[in-house]
Amino acid sequence: YLDNGNQIFKDARKNHYAVGAYNTNNLEWTRAILQAAEETRTPVLIQVSMGAAKYMGGYKVAKDLVEDEIDAMDISVPVVLNLDHGDFEAAKECIALGYSSVMFDGHALSTEENLAKTKEIVKLAHERGISVEAEIGKIGENQGAEGGELASVEDAKAFAAAGVDKLACGIGNIHGVYPADWKGLNFDRLKEIADAVSVPLVLHGGSGIPEDQVKKAISLGISKVNINTEFQLAFQAATRKYFEAHKDEDKDNKGYDPRKLLLPGTEAITASMKEMITWLGTPSID
Ligand code: G3H
Ligand code: ZN
């Protein structure tokens, strides 16, 4: 059973904490994320990007994996399954498949088109009790060297009025690793938006933002913080370290067993997520 997260994120906004949204890629990521949520007794949002779904064999494979692991691991905390940065077709497909939440990312469209398409997705999703996240302004792309664009208060009002359940805002945040000369989050704009709309606000590009800025953003109205790159870095570092330390053990210790090779990285994701939960202030459910 998947939770649509509506109450979870409303509570977070009201009480000034955030709930993490973590991207999965495969079995190891899925288990690592669910493990950290269960150990901390906190609700969790697992999200699947279009690229990750393609890698896993489609949106249905990803959904089945998450649901089957919730079952197999006996997970008792609420889990939201969200399509991350979906285009119109992907959002419709995930609604039909029964994802409990979808993000329709229309940032590349004109505001009018983004709003019109978002409204269509809201209608389809809400008929089925599915939550919708929209994007206004633009999240920067460090890897693509694409600059971000500040979300406007006017757009925030229009998208909130369209009935979206969560709103991702460009506030100087960037996907991927932050450049050394990054100027930081635009708290003035975040505050203006938060004062104008009561919908839970989403901070994309959560990896690599200093702790004090994450906490300040949450105090101003951010209720969902998206983390992807951080887990990739944690997985990579732990895996490299393990490979280096065990490079001569292949023959003797069955060092070629993938279940051994992938374990340190998987555990590093769980550890990284548990630390992030303390930054976000996500309370335990009991
Ligand atoms: O939608 C997912 C994210 O915004 C994650 O960004 O890879 O910079 O943590 P990140
Ligand atoms: Zn994002």
TrEMBL record:
Binds 2 Zn(2+) ions per subunit. One is catalytic and the other provides a structural contribution. Its cofactor is Zn(2+). One of its GO terms (biological process) is fructose 1,6-bisphosphate metabolic process. Zn(2+) 1 binds at residues 85, 175, 204. Zn(2+) 2 binds at residues 105, 135. Dihydroxyacetone phosphate binds at residues 176, 205-207, 226-229. Its EC number is 4.1.2.13. Pathway: Carbohydrate degradation. Transmembrane segments: none annotated. The active site is at residue 84. InterPro entries: Aldolase_TIM, Class_II_FBP_aldolase, FBA_II, Fruc_bis_ald_class-2. Keywords: Lyase, Metal-binding, Zinc. It comes from the Bacteria. One of its GO terms (molecular function) is fructose-bisphosphate aldolase activity. Pfam families: F_bP_aldolase (PF01116). This is Class II fructose-1,6-bisphosphate aldolase. It comes from Lactobacillus helsingborgensis.
